[in-house]
Design brief:
Chain A: This is MoaD/ThiS family protein. The complex is a heterodimer. Chain A contains two helices and five strands; from the N terminus they run E-E-H-H-E-E-E. Chain A is α+β, with helices and mostly antiparallel strands. In chain A, strand 3 and strand 4 form a beta hairpin. By secondary structure, chain B is of the alpha/beta class. The chains are: A alpha+beta, B alpha/beta. At the A-B interface, strand 3 and strand 5 of A face strand 3 and helix 6 of B.
């Protein structure tokens, strides 16, 4: 399964400045592992030492916040858009 | 438009590209008063002042680290008291240039602290109860405070367009501040906001874009826009300028203490949307103590949410230290942030100070709006109904001590949320213009 991953500005040092990169995987966990293989260093920025999503990272598969879905086990259908976004934004 | 350059920065033995810094004003040359650097609240990593908001290492929130003017509290107090009757009297404690008061600004702040004796009687408060009424700001909400600080950061970083994701009040504040200061503005709101907020956001002449979704959808959109060439050169007050913007809420703490005669209140009841305001008020109180401007004593901070969007309240009640996002469904739209960025910090502060976080449902919010209006002549927006309603609930639960000095925040104006009370509020009677009709209606 191939998906398109949107990379936030602060992680683009790992993708050569690219704002979108392709990745493979049937779940978000697999997609993140594939990202780490191809863009070494990005994984530990998104996941903590226990392998969980860092609390200030939001990840969306298409329009769904994965925290409302299955977290890292959220399915990533072929052609899906995955967005990684800093959570610390908005509000007051 | 500001153009960006990147450079190399070495940290923890690894090479990282430097944070985005505008060509016009590199971190080294930016002069924002006592602001010294940006510091990650999670891991402590420091970065030069710049238009960034999340830590490269851990995604944690960045906040301002200061070199504050210590050593002469009496001199500082006199300097503040001699300053303008707006937030710029606290310029020595804010990330703004020293001459900020001379620049075009909406000049918000120094709103009334109303001693609410009649409300106190209704609630069974025997101590002193005060409403910090921020509906008195230029666009009738506390957002003018935070936006005014963000405008100064936008100037420093060379931005020419101001933007934000907003539940309504912020969009109006950004529109007005941009108009006054000569910026272009383009702001984003959920498409289904109250008419009063939509009109108020649009009237200042900037671009107003309704997004088909809730606030969290708008916020996500803005976070993506900021990383796209379409958003290049934009100062998003609550995204890439968020570390500066948030500091504006400290002025609520400063004013409350100054208006109490340079004393800390015993208890504060503060609304929670993202939770930033509550955390910055706590920061402001701690700064006043550290600077010797107030005598150190314990204070308790209480957070207030609407039941239809209460992820922080729920986490507090359940003893969790993480906040599980929710999908909002409440009339308190200015507080309808289902994924509150500062939620974990609110929990920390409420627990550290011996406070609590609680919530009230929509009917209780409307009741509280009317109670405040009836007893104190203050027409609060729904967020004010939330704080007053939660205050009543906390007293009933024995969590808020009615014998102490308590300050309850009203952060916005009821004229913007007429829909909330209109169904149950209106003329007592409609009669012919005659005394008989007046008498017949039972009004004589």
């Amino acid at each position: 399964m191939s998906v398109n991953v949107r990379i936030p500005t602060i992680l683009r040092t790992y993708t050569g400045g690219k704002s979108e990169v392709p990745a493979e995987g049937t779940t978000l966990a697999e997609v993140l592992a594939d990202l780490e293989r191809n863009h070494g260093g990005i994984g530990p920025r998104v996941l903590d030492d226990a392998g969980k999503l860092r609390r200030f990272v939001n990840v969306y598969v298409n329009d769904d916040d994965v925290r409302f879905a299955e977290g890292l086990e959220t399915a990533t259908p072929d052609g899906a858009g995955v967005s990684i976004i800093p959570a610390v934004a908005g509000g007051c | 438009m500001a153009r960006y350059v990147t450079g190399k920065m070495r940290r923890k033995g690894l090479a990282f590209m430097a944070v985005q810094t505008p060509e016009k004003s590199t971190g080294a040359s930016v002069s924002l008063g006592p602001a010294a650097a940006l510091s990650c609240r999670e891991c402590g990593e420091r970065f030069p002042l710049g238009p960034i908001f999340a830590c490269e290492a851990c995604f944690g929130p960045l906040e301002i680290a200061y070199n504050l003017p210590t050593g002469d509290p009496e001199g500082l107090r006199k300097q503040i008291e001699a300053g303008p009757k707006n937030i710029w009297r606290y310029a020595p404690l804010l990330p703004v240039p020293a001459d900020v008061a001379s620049k075009p600004s909406t000049n918000p702040g120094y709103t009334q602290l109303v001693k609410a004796d009649r409300l106190a009687r209704e609630l069974g408060v025997t101590g002193s109860l005060h409403i910090k009424d921020d509906s008195g700001n230029p666009t009738h909400s506390f957002k003018d405070r935070v936006v005014a600080i963000a405008v100064e950061a936008a100037r420093a970083f060379g931005f020419t367009t101001l933007s934000c994701s907003s539940t309504g009040n912020l969009a109006g504040a950004v529109g007005a501040a941009a108009a006054r200061a000569g910026f272009r503005s383009c702001v984003f709101i959920p498409h289904d906001l109250e008419q009063g907020k939509v009109v108020m956001a649009a009237v200042y002449g900037g671009e107003l874009v309704g997004i088909e979704g809730n606030y969290d959808d708008v916020n996500r959109f803005c976070s993506e826009l900021i990383g796209d060439p379409l958003g290049e050169g934009w100062g998003f007050v609550n995204v890439n300028l968020r570390p500066y913007y948030g500091e504006g809420s400290k002025t609520l703490a400063y004013e409350i203490c100054e208006q109490l005669g340079w004393e800390l209140p015993d208890q504060l009841v503060i609304p929670i949307a993202s939770g930033s305001q509550l955390t910055k008020i706590d920061k402001g109180l701690k700064e006043l103590i550290a600077l010797g401007l107030v005598e150190d004593k314990p204070y308790r901070i209480f957070g207030a949410q609407a039941a239809g969007c209460s992820p922080v309240s729920r986490a507090f009640q359940e003893g969790h230290d993480v906040v599980r996002p929710v999908k909002p469904d409440t009339i308190a739209k200015s507080l309808a942030i289902g994924n509150p960025a500062d939620g974990p910090y609110v929990l920390d502060i409420a627990r550290r100070t011996g406070g609590a976080v609680d919530d009230v449902d929509d009917a209780q919010i409307v009741d509280a709006i009317k109670l405040l209006a009836r007893t104190e002549g203050i027409f609060a927006e729904t967020a004010g109904g939330v704080t007053v309603g939660v205050t009543r609930k906390l007293i009933e639960k024995g969590l808020l001590d009615p014998s102490l000095t308590t300050v309850v925040l009203n952060t916005g104006d009821g004229l913007k949320t007429l829909d909330a009370v209109a169904p149950t509020t209106g003329p007592t009677a409609t009669i012919r213009p005659s005394l008989d009709a007046f008498r017949d209606a039972g009004l004589g």
